[in-house]
Predict the structure.
Amino acid sequence: MKYLIVCCLLVFVSCKNNKKVDEVFNEEVVVEKINRDDIKLEIYDFNGLEKFLNQEDYNVHVVNFWATWCKPCVKELPHFETLNEKYKDKDIEVLLVSLDFPKQYDKKLKPFIVEHNLKSRILVLDDVDMNTWIPKVNKDWDGAIPVTLIYNSKKRQFYNQTFTYEELENELKQFLN
Amino acid sequence: MKYLKFITIIAVILFASAFTISNNVSGEKGYDIGDIATDFKLKNIDGKMLSLADYKDAKGFIVIFTCNTCPFAVGYEDRIIALDKKYAIKGYPVIAIMPNNTDVMPGDRMDAMKARAASKGFTFPYLMDEGQKIYPQYGATKTPHVYVLQKTNKGNIVKYIGAIDDNYKDAALVNTKYVENAVDALLGGKEIKDTKTRAIGCTIKIKK
């Protein structure tokens, strides 16, 4: 009896595997389309980035500062992706501002974007003079990441914290009314 | 069955949010310039317990919250060693404290700290903030995070809080060496120009 079950399982697994091959093959084709070499990073110093923190339009802007080396950032990143996906027909814009080191752009950041299939717009901030630009993002920010800024034409809120998806969506909703 | 699933999901959400809330309420503000910094008794990489009070001849301290696992902290290691070499003999030794929860960051465990200190040749103590009681009192939020203290009759007074310098990428391109300027000012009996600076760093890891 035991053998029978094992055999059944094996058959089952191998069937599944066959199916997987097709799927994997298809996936590979898709992956190849967004090859990491094709990714053009939008790299800014703070002067260049500042306009994204002060856009005067009808949208709600959700700006998250993160890096691939920042464990809590990576953990909450899917929530921003979900938000971006769920609200793509609404007037919201999710911006993921990476603080990765320039020498890691090709080695870590681009592979990360491909691997996690990030759909939100990614900006890269490369500006060493942190003591000057950090307080311009928010006067109470001392530089630990992740942090998130949500703003529209009427209000602006800075979050020195990590989010669960529910928390993030609740904050966004306060800007949608 | 459906109800059970529903209840389980609700329970999980409640459970998770309860923890998130408790984390946000930790709310200790930490030290400002002029405050008296607490001493501590923390385990060093040599296995001995160490306190600031053990340094009878020190004029002050360069306390740096740092760790093995943060790229910013690692990027500053050579400069931290240089600070200790330059200022320990002048009375301001570097005291490095590793503030992370090691369950969250296994790369910061004591054996890893020892290995890192040995391979880099740390000339200063590298202490474990076991139980994570000290960093919240200082108000450290990230690694690296520096506190320059001046020893007085009243205690160790916080004189500088913030970054080591203004270029994390390249030590050769630094314009302002904040910590060196602060300690030089203290040694020369002058006013510190920048008493608080900011820099990007890795959040200190706590258990969720």
Summary: The CA atoms of residues 73 and 105 of chain B lie 14 Å apart.
